[in-house]
Amino acid sequence: MSDIIRWTAAELADKLSAGEVSSREATQAHLDRIAAVDGDVHAFLHVNEGALAAADAIDTARAAGERLHPLAGVPLAIKDVLVTTDQPTTSGSKILEGYMSPYDATVVARARAAGLVPLGKTNMDEFAMGSSTEHSAYGPTRNPWDLDRVPGGSGGGSAAAVAAFEAPLALGSDTGGSIRQPAHVTGTVGIKPTYGGVSRYGAIALASSLDQVGPVTRTVLDSGLLHDVIGGHDPKDSTSLTDAWPSFAEAAREGARGDVLKGLKVGVIKELPDSGFQAGVAASFRASLDLLEANGAEIVEISTPHFEYGVAAYYLILPAEASSNLAKFDSVRFGLRVTPDGNPTVEDVMSATREAGFGDEVKRRIILGTYALSAGYYDAYYGSAQKVRTLIQRDFDNAFAEVDVIATPSAPTTAFKLGAKIDDPLQMYLNDVTTIPANLAGVPGISIPSGLAEEDGMPVGIQFLAPAHEDARLYRVGAALETALVDSWGAPLLTRAPQLPGGNR
After folding, report:
1. Residue 154: active-site member
2. Domain definitions of the chain by residue range
3. Per the residue annotation, which of 79, 121, 192, 421 is the catalytic one?
4. With a threshold of 0.85, does the pTM exceed it?
5. What is the pLDDT of residues 129-150, one digit of tens each?
6. Is 3-267+402-496 a domain of CATH 3.90.1300.10?
7. By CB atoms within 10 Å of each CB, which of 199, 307, 375, 390 scores lowest?
């Protein structure tokens, strides 16, 4: 298998620019990798038949002396929640099987404009509802570190593709941790930008006040490079911020080469005791804090008393918004249509279609959300959850008055076995206990690999949270710790992953 697949996106971009490798060669190497290992991993739902043609177009433009974006020619995987004109978009659901969008999501359009080469669409929990990618209507994705374990969710396909060296870059979406939690369990880097910092236009909505598109990569710098491409104001998205953003790639470079950790105040939440986390996760988190401290950071205990209610509030707000957003899948306008025998009414067709097209988890959340919004219960449930959301936002405001960033484990456990929690929704929901508050408050978060858990040898991540609009701070801090960790390990974490069947790691 070609060494090309082991290069970071930044390394590949440099070699493309220098003429040491062509985009066709890079794309073919990743397509070969997908062919070799994806039968085991199942990271992709669709592989782009036009990938090589797109790569050839970049090579032709480069040979003609055209000025290209630094990432031009680098392959990209796309979570199947993002609509594309040249590939089906299913959002992991049977109700959208075979659906072809008439337009590209803004982030996809920007990636194409920059010359990135779409490799295909990655697997996900249906409509992004899940924490394991087991709720996909097209079968589960498996963790490249251990094929009997989950890759996280809902964006397990994107994280697995990057971890398995099937793609150097991927796009994901994060509603309650769906980028960061998969990054934690696959040894990759995942970023949830500030809400509104990256366009949601063309991202099939789950919960509109929580959803955020972001990068999935193997290094912090690679995330910054991709974030620079997809970020910025989009007039097509009414929630898009008009801020002028700095270069996140440059922020990552500053973090990797500078002394940004000196004097940095890192908040650790006192209400988040080690007892709630797997021993290996807690040990890795403490070791990362020690390394931060050794490099000049100050660890400060902070209080966020309302974070403990985050999961409960989230699982009222999200189902309520999902109930509304998914009402469009009604058998009338697009998607699957199931017509019962006899002389069915529109209501009969709609009921039969939604019964056949939606999976159990989607049905569960629609029912819960509809109930929470119903007359007589709105104030008691949805209204109360929104009040808790405000309290969590105030907790963040108070915390960031004392510290520069907040650090937590990215998730409570390492990747669990496939099937272990599929029948226990509450245990599945608790996987997002540390990631959900960022979505409720709209602040940015990053998960970077922090080591391997002693008890099972599986990857563990550390999460940093920063104030809204301070995404660049996360890139500086994340890159600084990443550099210190890799120096201490002697090599990137993913070089220690076991070999996959069907492909040479």
Report:
1. yes
2. 3-267+402-496
3. 79
4. yes
5. 999 999 999 999 999 999 999 9
6. yes
7. 375
